[in-house]
Amino acid sequence: MPQLPDDLDAVAVRTWCSLALEALGRERAEIDAINVYPVADGDTGTNLYLTVESAAAAVEAVFAAHETGTTAPATADAVRAMAHGALIGARGNSGTILAQLLRGMAAVLADGGDAAHLRLALTRAAAAARQAVAHPVEGTVLTVATAAAEAAQDGDGALRTVVDAAYEGARAALAKTPGQLAVLGRAGVVDAGGRGLVAILGALLEAVTGQAPARGPRTAGRTPAPVDGGGCDDGLPVGGVPVPDGPDDCPEGGARGGPAFEVIYLLEAGDAQVDRLRARLDALGDSLVVVGGDGLWHVHVHVDDAGAAVEAGVEAGRPYRIRITHFATESGHDLRPHTEPARRAVVVVVPGDGLAGLCTEAGATTVLARPGEPPASGELVDAIRRAHAREVVLLPNDAALRHTAAAAAEQARTEGVRVALVPTRAAVQGIAALAVHEPDRGFDEDVVAMTAAAGATRYAELAVAERQSWTMAGVCQAGDILGLIDGDVAVIGADLPTTARTVLDRMLAAGGELVTLVLGEDVPDALADALEKHVREGHLAVDTVVYRGGHQRAPLLIGVE
To answer: How far apart are CA 179 and CA 185, in angstroms?
Structure first.
């Protein structure tokens, strides 16, 4: 039996993230179903899941960087990564508030993970979340977070009793939310964001005790009668705590008829600029939440003028990863003209804007994987929706995206889309698969052909070593050029041209008919010319094609098929 932690060290934080993701995965549909406030758009569970997914991925990246070491990462590195991952991946109102809760906890837990630090962390988190929300409302996740922090103060000196007290305090507060917020009482449900927080605290309890918390009885609640034009009764009475009957009045915040758009973006800006941004966005709309700090912020607001909200961000600093959602579309009432879905589409993840243009010209829907920012499953689901097809072939082009892509495919299948995941591990395999794609043949036949083409393509990339480390090819120093073949370091060189030639010769020793070169934005055309000449002179009957990848992580990608 594994030893249970006496404090929240990095391993415990990693376990917490993993268990929280599992818990939200199990409860996502039920939490979505009870989402009636602030907008009944049925996505709170999904948004929380995607936010925690991003947090967990950031923690895993910290552990991956320590794989060659003998010790685990420092607790401060793990909790800061968790908070940063949640910040950059936050989705929706609930996910944005959760990101601030985790940020508030991380600021304290970075100094220690014992019971005293955890009590303070929960208090700081609840206060930070309230401060981030322009107009806090009781009966929401803010109430549940505050109750958890207050209950934690009653725990004794043991970490597990503090976590247990916080969990039970959150559950008790969640059960009272229908009596605090009229829209919840009318719908007969508890607050969706609060329920998600209870699941996350339950995962923390399991991480420190080794035992999953017992859930309360399934809510018996009452099913609300439909109201013409939608309103605050779209939720179903489900949950992990009893729900009392509540008042029948429905406040304006829970009804449809509010702002038409949800606008979310990351923003690089200073504190003073963000203060002015808050004031401007508060005048434009509602549900305003701005979280973050140290120059990086996550902005969430509901507005009628989405352009004005983005413009305000441009004036404050540099907004990016902008997401605009029309509530009528998200809730199933698409106001745009309906078009018949295409028979089949391909969704492909690309590492640079150059390949994005290439794949778009080939008819694919693309998702850009920025250096250091792999797409979350929600971005892949969005791309599948944009493709607007009955059948979709998904090409993740990265071994690390296997589970993310599988989750996205499963989500899309629940929406009635037939999705096949071709497990491409590199962009050059995706190019090979896309080259043989034929939408007019049978779906299974097309998937088999694309899978075969990808599998027949060996792949390599050349990268610059960031630090000294052990590899399968020996010890590399910072600044060395690494030639990775099929994911493993096979060549260590001093310069890009020489290393690339060595990698090509090793790959072509096993045969090949076509070499694909994908050049990063700073790589000169002369290198491609030299490598093409090298292949032509040393390997008869082998053709070479060259593409510009744009801004990508690796300066050179190579495929041999």
So the answer is: 6
Q: Report the SS3 class of residue 303.
A: strand
Cα angle 70, 72, 78 (rounded to 5 degrees) comes to: 155
Identify which of 437, 472, 464 has the alpha carbon closest to the alpha carbon of residue 453. Answer: 437
**Are residues 502 and 493 in contact, defined by beta-carbon separation less than 8 angstroms?**
yes
Q: Smallest Cα–Cα separation from 486: which of 519, 451, 461, 517? A: 461
Structure tokens at 7: 């404090």
Q: How far is CA 38 from CA 223, 257, 409, 452, in A?
A: 19, 11, 29, 48
CA distance 318 to 102: 24
DSSP 8-76: --HHHHHHHHHHHHHHHHHHHHHHHHT--SS---S-HHHHHHHHHHHHHHHHHHHHHTTTTSSSPPPHH
Residue 271 vs residues 83, 84, 288, 293, 537: alpha-carbon distances, Å: 19, 18, 17, 7, 59
261-268 sheet: strands from edge to edge: 285-293, 296-303, 261-268, 318-326
Burial grade of 283 (CB within 10 A; 0-12, 13-18, 19 or more): exposed
Question: What dihedral do alpha carbons 539, 427, 59, 320 form, nearest 10°?
Answer: 130
Estimate to the nearest angstrom the gap between the alpha carbon of 322 and the chain centroid. 14
Number of Cβ atoms within 10 Å of the Cβ of 1: 4
Q: From CA 529, how far away is CA 534, in angstroms rounded?
A: 9
Radius of gyration over alpha carbons of the chain, in Å? 25
Residue 517 CA, distance from chain mean position: 30
Token pair recorded at residue 95: 């996910």
Q: Are 21 and 67 in contact (CB under 8 A)?
A: no
CB atoms within 10 A of CB 436: 13
From first to last of its 561 residues, the chain has per-residue pLDDT tens of 455 567 889 999 999 999 999 999 889 889 988 988 887 777 889 889 989 998 999 999 888 877 655 678 899 999 999 999 999 888 888 999 999 999 999 999 999 989 999 999 999 999 999 999 999 999 999 999 999 999 999 866 789 999 999 999 999 999 999 999 999 998 899 999 999 999 999 999 999 998 888 764 333 233 333 323 333 333 333 334 444 333 333 333 334 457 878 888 889 999 999 999 999 999 998 889 999 998 999 999 998 888 888 888 989 998 887 777 776 544 443 433 346 788 999 999 998 778 888 888 888 998 888 776 778 777 888 889 888 899 999 999 998 888 888 888 888 888 889 999 999 999 999 999 999 999 889 999 999 999 999 999 999 999 898 888 888 888 889 899 999 999 889 999 999 999 999 999 999 988 889 999 999 888 888 998 999 999 998 888 889 999 888 777 788 999 999
368-375: long-range contacts (C-beta < 8 A, 24 or more apart)?
369/397, 369/398, 369/401, 371/551, 371/552, 371/553, 372/553, 373/88, 374/57, 374/398, 374/400, 374/401, 374/404, 375/349, 375/401, 375/404
